[in-house]
Design a protein that fits this description.
It is built from four helices and seven strands, in the order H-H-E-H-E-E-H-E-E-E-E. It is an alpha/beta fold. The structure holds inosinic acid.
Length: 174
């Protein structure tokens, strides 16, 4: 047998995968994908992944207004991408990057519970409990943070700063 010859070296693969990752990060609307991918590597269970997309109705203020006073959505959340897999009888963990007013997760929880999973849990990297409008809690919370607008590690401000490796505070003006 002849020796296999390297076609694409590991360094070239690593570089290209990093480039692809950066592109997916830019293109993918869901913010939680970075947290989810890191988390998934540390959960040693037989698991599958599914993605759900939501957007909120209401007049979202300009990014600078949003930064100044936060954004209080009307609570009307709209599904932009439904799940693909059946969840009945499964153990479901909803992974979110940040739990803020709780409006989004309250909507999603109701929606997902209708699929009758065996268990339903919420994992959120960050939690701003002082902003809460709905009585909902994360079952697995990474860090409890004060009411600051944060960016990085997948979180954006007007689509910027998602790629920062750290969670950073974006100072509010005035
Ligand atoms: P909730 O419905 O108010 O809990 O909204 C949660 C969503 O608001 C998150 O998934 C984020 O998309 C967004 N969000 C809340 N706080 C921040 C923040 O500090 N930085 C970036 N996005 C945020």
């Amino acid at each position: 047998m002849m020796e296999p010859k390297v076609l694409i070296g590991r360094e070239q693969i690593a570089t290209r995968v990093a480039e692809m990752g950066a592109q997916i990060t830019r293109d993918f609307a869901g913010r939680s994908i970075i947290f989810l991918s890191d988390l998934a590597r540390h959960v040693h269970l037989d698991s599958t992944f599914d993605f759900i997309g939501v957007s909120s109705y209401g007049n979202r203020p300009s990014p600078s207004e949003e930064l100044k006073s936060g954004w209080d959505s009307t609570g009307e959340v709209r599904l932009t991408k439904d799940v693909d897999q059946a969840m009945k009888g499964k153990n479901v963990i909803l992974v979110e990057d940040i739990l803020d007013t709780g409006l989004t997760l309250t909507y999603l929880k109701k929606l997902l519970l209708a699929h009758q999973p065996a268990a339903f849990k919420i994992a959120a990297l960050l939690d701003k409990p002082t902003r809460r409008k709905m009585p909902i809690q994360g079952d697995y919370v990474g860090f409890t943070i004060p009411d600051e607008f944060v960016v990085g590690y997948g979180l954006d401000y007007a689509e910027r700063y998602r790629g920062l490796p750290d969670v950073c505070v974006l100072p509010r003006e005035g």
